[in-house]
Amino acid sequence: MNPSEVTELSRLVERIRDRGITVMLVEHHIRFIMTIADTVTVLSAGSIIASGPPAAVQRDAAVMAAYLGQDNESAFHS
Fold it and tell me: What distance in Å separates the CA atoms of residue 61 and residue 68, rounded to the nearest whole number?
């Protein structure tokens, strides 16, 4: 997604959420997900390796190892 599409989708999801509707997104745009999600579930090879609030998931050692390399959190921050 380009930056304009990310902004547009973010606004749409927020409007839906604000109506009390649960939204489930399957998305690989990590920065987008970390800013909009209340709960993040991360899969690796079809198995859940972490689930919880975005701040906790982005610090999870299994997530960092699977997606970013051992100690790299840069992809989570804008």
Answer: 10
- State the Cα–Cα distance between residues 47 and 76, nearest whole angstrom: 21
Q: Collect all residues with Cβ–Cβ distance below 8 Å to 65 and sequence separation of at least 6.
A: none
CA atoms within 13 A on the CB side of 17: 13
- Concatenated DSSP letters for 21-58? ---------HHHHHHH-SSEEEEETTEEEEEE-HHHHH
CB count within 10 Å of CB 3 equals: 8
pLDDT of residue 76: 54
Mean pLDDT of the chain: 87
